[in-house]
Amino acid sequence: MVKTPPLANGDKLNRYEFERRYNAMPNLKKAELIEGIVYMPAALRFRSHGQPHGRIVGWLGTYEAVTPGVALGVEPTVRLDLDNEPQPDAILIIAPEAGGQARLSEDDYIEGAPELIVEIAASSVAMDLHAKKQAYRRNGVKEYIVWQVLDQKLTWFYLEQGEYMELVPNTEGILQSQVFPGLWLAVADLLAGNMQRVLTVLQAGVQSPEHAAFVQRLAPFV
């Protein structure tokens, strides 16, 4: 029997070979295929990744809890195309039966583009703002959030005629999703670690008429 080669940083593979090698390494926690190249991240630090990741998940999880018909995923494998199989830090999808654009495969992987992807990046030179952004845009991820922790910056992109545009905050500095009504983010407070204010603003979002209409629209499919 020929032994399956292990994954290594920089390998150039298609998605099928990437999965074959990944599945042969059960102790491997995370590896991504981005534009046909394998990336295997180093250990993650607390302040620059683990803590911000937790805060984003808390924000999205609160929205999911009051919005039947949407689903939150943390570091799921996403089969985007033949050259891209990332594990985003977080995703939010509309359930396929409710008209969402992604679907679940028979072996329980996400196939297609989630409506929203969030990545925690170290800085503006990270892959998240270059190769991944290109792959997400090309595959139709409708909204993409990149939190550049070291730069103290968060950018929320939305897809407009095949290109990513930056979402502009309202007069109170709040970013509001165009895909998930009521998903509001107080960016300055998130960057400052003021999660109480972040969740207060989100609470106002999920009490808005727009969110109520969204929930009502999804209700028949839940």
**What count of structural domains?**
1
Basic shape:
globular
The oligomeric state is single chain
CATH class: Alpha Beta
Q: Please identify, by name, the CATH architecture.
A: Alpha-Beta Complex
Q: Rg from C-alpha positions?
A: 18 Å
Strand order of the largest sheet: 3-5-8-9-10-11
Q: Give the tally of β-strands.
A: 13
Q: What is the H/E order?
A: HEEHEEEEEEHEEEEEHHH
Helical coverage, percent range: 25-40%
The proportion of residues in beta strands is 15-25%
**What class would the helix/strand composition place it in?**
alpha+beta
Topology at a glance:
Elements: H1 15-23, E1 32-34, E2 37-39, H2 46-65, E3 70-73, E4 78-79, E5 90-94, E6 103-104, E7 110-111, E8 116-121, H3 131-139, E9 143-148, E10 153-160, E11 163-166, E12 174-176, E13 184-186, H4 187-192, H5 195-206, H6 209-218
Parallel strand pairs: 4-7, 8-9
Antiparallel strand pairs: 1-2, 3-5, 5-8, 6-7, 9-10, 10-11, 12-13
Helix pairs in contact: 2-5
Explain this structure.
By secondary structure, the protein is α+β, with helices and mostly antiparallel strands. The protein has one domain: tt1808, chain A (Alpha-Beta Complex), CATH 3.90.1570. It has helices spanning 15-23, 46-65, 131-139, 187-192, 195-206, 209-218, and strands spanning 32-34, 37-39, 70-73, 78-79, 90-94, 103-104, 110-111, 116-121, 143-148, 153-160, 163-166, 174-176, 184-186. The chain has a 6-stranded mixed beta sheet. β9 (143-148) and β10 (153-160) form a beta hairpin. α2 (46-65) packs parallel to α5. The longest helix has 20 residues, at 46-65. The radius of gyration is 18 Å and the shape is globular. The termini are far apart. The mean pLDDT is 94.
